[in-house]
């Protein structure tokens, strides 16, 4: 037995020390981490990449080609050129067409589950027309306001979730609902299109009326499926940047959560000063951080990702149920996302872009994107202490908000 351990130890040590071939121009086995900083963009991840490490994984192969292209050591001039040019799209496109020409990649593609193939078939497309959008400056009721809101709520919802939207409008998403204050927040709902032929009503028409009435609908012409959720992030960043929306912070979350807006706004005002003082506002993201998660390999799961599609663990990311980041970061994510291939799981994708910006989400224990741990909820002050909790019905949301306002007023 002892001998066996000894042997295993040697094998492991040899693997760790031995397999890396020396670097030569002909044999670019691994790549040095970059050190160039340009326009606030960080060097690529601080690792040595082994080309053969993820040979079978479809997404890794696609992205490796793009990351190589922007590696500041291999291509020092690439990062110096402006980041706003359209070359990113062509690099991403080219890496896709080159990679998918390879025999092994094609084989891998055909072995992927059908819904992932469907994702791959559309993963290059990122421009979808806007069907409906708010008329005010970045969100509701912006027309007669000169000052940008402190916080813009960007809420992922679906056409049929009218009840959820209504609960949010009347409670935590109400623009400037903090007593006596005008406009500390505004909101926008992010939607794709649902297949609702069999309902017998014209949903598009209803949504159009809703948009006219509330002015808080942002809808694109793509199918609202789970694997298309990443598009909502990417297209929202673009919309936010193109409009030059000046909201200091963005909250992005689902439509089945409760947010304690008064507490959140107080927290953000507190953070703002420090963040501006130490110039880290451009990197700021806070939420429930999930570190070094492994992709879900259970094939019945909604989050299932086969090894052949993605290998390795995920970068640390903030749970997508509810997360806050700065408007400056939203603009940087808009640029960075053009050099990261779309990934079917939205919050992981945000983490992948963050890692390449050398920015990392901050963990805050009051963001409960997976609900209360154990019986914590039953304690009388639990709701008072949190900033956010997933997952709540529209009725619960309204009730919790009443409670939160009362508590906020009495503890002021
Ligand atoms: C990179 O830029 C430098 C100076 O800016 C130039 O001398 C060099 O030729 C460029 N290299 C490539 C490969 O374009
Ligand atoms: C927003 O909240 C802060 C702090 O609670 C307050 O000072 C400010 O007047 C509020 N209103 C606006 C429009 O910023
Ligand atoms: C539903 O309404 C929209 C907008 O009014 C219209 O363009 C569309 O043709 C209608 N669809 C159906 C199936 O009637
Ligand atoms: C995403 O939306 C596009 C456009 O409607 C659609 O063609 C595609 O099948 C959708 N992708 C997934 C994975 O559902
Ligand atoms: C800047 O302030 C934030 C918020 O307090 C803090 O988390 C971060 O560590 C600070 N960064 C530096 C570089 O001091």
UniProtKB/TrEMBL annotation:
Family: Belongs to the glycosyltransferase 31 family.
Protein's UniProt keywords contain Transmembrane: yes
Domain of life: Eukaryota
PANTHER family, per database record: BETA-1,3-N-ACETYLGLUCOSAMINYLTRANSFERASE, HEXOSYLTRANSFERASE
Stretch forming the signal peptide: 1-21
Biological processes, Gene Ontology terms: lipid metabolic process; poly-N-acetyllactosamine biosynthetic process; protein O-linked glycosylation
Subcellular location: Golgi apparatus membrane
Organism: Acanthochromis polyacanthus
Pfam families per UniProt: Galactosyl_T
UniProt EC number: 2.4.1.-
Protein name, as recorded: Hexosyltransferase
GO cellular component terms, A-Z: Golgi membrane
Pathway info: Protein modification; protein glycosylation
Keywords: Glycoprotein, Glycosyltransferase, Golgi apparatus, Lipid metabolism, Membrane, Signal, Signal-anchor, Transferase, Transmembrane, Transmembrane helix
Bilayer disposition of the protein: Single-pass type II membrane protein
InterPro entries, per database record: Glyco_trans_31 (IPR002659)
GO MF term set: hexosyltransferase activity; UDP-glycosyltransferase activity
Enzyme class: transferase
């Amino acid at each position: 037995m002892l001998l066996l351990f000894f042997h295993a130890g040697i094998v492991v040590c040899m693997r760790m020390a031995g397999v890396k071939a020396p670097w030569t121009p002909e044999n670019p086995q691994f790549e040095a981490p970059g050190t160039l900083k340009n326009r606030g963009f960080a060097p690529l991840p601080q690792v040595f990449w082994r080309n053969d490490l993820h040979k079978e994984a479809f997404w890794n192969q696609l992205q490796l080609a793009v990351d190589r292209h922007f590696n500041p050591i291999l291509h020092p001039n690439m990062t110096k050129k402006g980041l706003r040019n359209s070359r990113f799209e062509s690099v991403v496109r080219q890496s896709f067409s080159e990679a998918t020409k390879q025999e092994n990649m094609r084989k891998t593609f055909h072995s992927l589950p059908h819904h992932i193939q469907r994702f791959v078939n559309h993963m290059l497309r990122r421009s979808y027309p806007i069907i409906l959008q708010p008329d005010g400056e970045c969100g509701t009721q912006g027309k007669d306001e000169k000052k940008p809101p402190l916080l813009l709520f960007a809420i992922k919802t679906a056409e049929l979730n009218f009840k959820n939207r209504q609960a949010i409008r009347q409670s935590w998403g109400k623009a400037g609902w903090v007593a006596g204050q005008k406009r500390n927040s505004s909101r926008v709902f992010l939607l794709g299109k649902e297949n609702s032929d069999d309902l017998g009503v014209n949903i598009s028409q209803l949504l159009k009326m809703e948009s006219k009435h509330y002015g808080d609908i942002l809808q694109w012409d793509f199918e609202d499926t789970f694997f298309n959720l990443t598009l909502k992030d990417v297209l929202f960043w673009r919309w936010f940047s193109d409009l030059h929306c000046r909201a200091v912070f963005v909250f992005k979350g689902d439509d089945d959560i409760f947010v304690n807006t008064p507490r959140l706004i107080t927290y953000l005002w507190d953070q703002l000063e420090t963040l501006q003082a130490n110039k880290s506002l451009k990197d700021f993201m806070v939420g429930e951080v999930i570190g070094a998660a492994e992709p879900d390999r259970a094939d019945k799961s909604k989050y299932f990702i086969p090894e052949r599609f993605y290998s390795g663990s995920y970068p640390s990311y903030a749970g997508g149920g509810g997360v806050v980041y700065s408007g400056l970061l939203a603009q940087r994510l808009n640029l960075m996302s053009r050099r990261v291939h779309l990934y079917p799981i939205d919050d992981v994708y945000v983490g992948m872009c963050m890692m390449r910006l050398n920015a990392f989400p901050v963990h805050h224990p009051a963001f409960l994107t997976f609900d209360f741990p154990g019986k914590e909820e039953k304690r009388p002050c639990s709701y008072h202490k949190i900033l956010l909790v997933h997952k709540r019905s529209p009725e619960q949301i309204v009730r919790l908000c009443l409670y939160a306002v009362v508590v906020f007023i009495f503890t002021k």
